[in-house]
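Hi again,

Forgot to attach this to my earlier email, sorry! This is the prediction with nicotinamide-adenine-dinucleotide bound. I've pasted everything inline since the attachment limit keeps bouncing my files.
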Amino acid sequence: MTATQQATTPTATTDLPVVGHWIDGAIGAGTSGRAADVYDPATGQVTKRVALASREDADAVIAAAAKAWPAWRDISLARRTQVLFAFRELLNARKAELAEIITSEHGKVLADALGEVSRGQEIVEFACGLSHLLKGGQTENASTGVDVSSIRQPLGVVGVISPFNFPAMVPMWFFPMAIAAGNAVVLKPSEKDPSASLWLARLWQEAGLPDGIFNVLQGDKVAVDALLESPSVKAISFVGSTPIARYVYEVATQHGKRVQALGGAKNHMVVLPDADLDLAADAAVNGGFGSAGERCMAVSALVAVDTIADELIGKIKERIAGLRTGDGRRGCDMGPLVTGAHRDKVVGYIEQGVAAGAELVVDGRDKLVDGPVGGFWVTPTLFDKVTTDMSIYTEEIFGPVLSVLRVKTFDEAIDMINANPYGNGTAIFTNDGGAARRFQHDVEVGMVGINVPVPVPVGYYSFGGWKNSLFGDTHAHGTEGMHFFTRGKVVTTRWLDPSHGGINLGFPQNV
Ligand code: NAD
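Structure tokens for the complex follow:
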């Protein structure tokens, strides 16, 4: 490992560029006078500021979307498809640019950022099939001379509120589907890495999307509350931590909106004694430390049956020793954490784990890294002998900290997962098909991997957890996504026939 121990120099934040809103096809500075710092996590420097909307700014963005929406709703499916295809082509050609932006504000390594964009692109590709996805049903002669058809129509203006950890992919879980279905979108990105949203907005404009159909509202709670409370916003797709997801669900439903609010996670990976332990060790390292553990599908609890735990931990330790943590632009394996405050929180959890009596097998504090000294570093950390009452297990750390919990039996592993309040993702490593089948049947988790550590569903399936990992019932993208962004209408038709005239106040019966 090489360490470029450069000192950082403080920057005068007032001279920095400010990331603005995207309203009706143009950048808007807003009127609030409020802004937050945006960091390059690998250097620890503030590189820009982001505007934080006032309620008036939010209302202006929502009004622009509401004004643009009716024309987009009425545009043919053929034309909508062409715009989606053009967006897909531009994204595919230029995704390296977007990946660089993500790395510069989030910190994840470039290859990982590119992977994020590609997984988002999958949803755009799925949404290109909008004409098929929006097909209704038709029944001829439901009653004599009566036909019934069902259609699905867009909702209007929809709000998408996204977290810092996937500044491109998570918004792309929703907005391609919403736009394909004929809605207008207001995206409220995370204030920690806001620039990807503006890059995507410009791309939509280049793809031919009419102005006002994709808008970006930068900000914090003020912007979120405006979206939750505005009568013009008909639906909210939220992704973030569980307390905020619960809040968003409660407030937005009180305001009459449909809501899908995806929350936090604690994902368990179970390793049975018959598993290929090299494969399982690779998977635990990839799933635990990819994106510095800042993934809602990261493996954070490794549940090992006691008989193989020592061997598995040995293999994981060897692999951690070969990882290079550093600036994501330097070909490292793992980047920094998103902010200094988050780094300090993760370090605090490591201290709590030690104090609670867990065995710290690999300590990621104060290690040499391939990046400037001011970066927000924690290198891969491994705990053994973690128990379910320790805070490193009960809380979502969202950092590169992998906790091993030892169990005696398979049943004990399943009970542990089902007792956990989160239910986002889980995985099992085994060569026993019967055990895997029982796991997938009994485990109370929304996304299950069998010998796959991070089982993020492909775009044409739907993404979503159970329990405290999702409030609402509709998962993201796939056919559930198209359902979320449309509402059903059933039309019953009878063409006039003199034989059906006359007065009858009884409830119509089918004959
Ligand atoms: P966060 O909850 O802090 O923020 C998410 C969004 O909510 C941001 O846009 C933020 O500006 C806004 N927000 C924050 N505080 C708010 C408040 N008090 N009132 C209203 N809005 C508020 O989450 P984060 O730190 O950006 O992201 C990490 C979290 O997201 C983790 O818990 C992770 O598990 C979760 N996540 C979940 C999924 C999933 O699919 N379930 C996917 C990605 C991330």
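The pocket of nicotinamide-adenine-dinucleotide is lined by residues 161-166, 170, 188, 190-191, 220-221, 224, 239-241, 244, 262-265, 296, 396, 398, 424, 465, 469 (CB under 6 Å). Residues 1-12 have pLDDT under 50 and may be disordered.

That should be everything now.

G.
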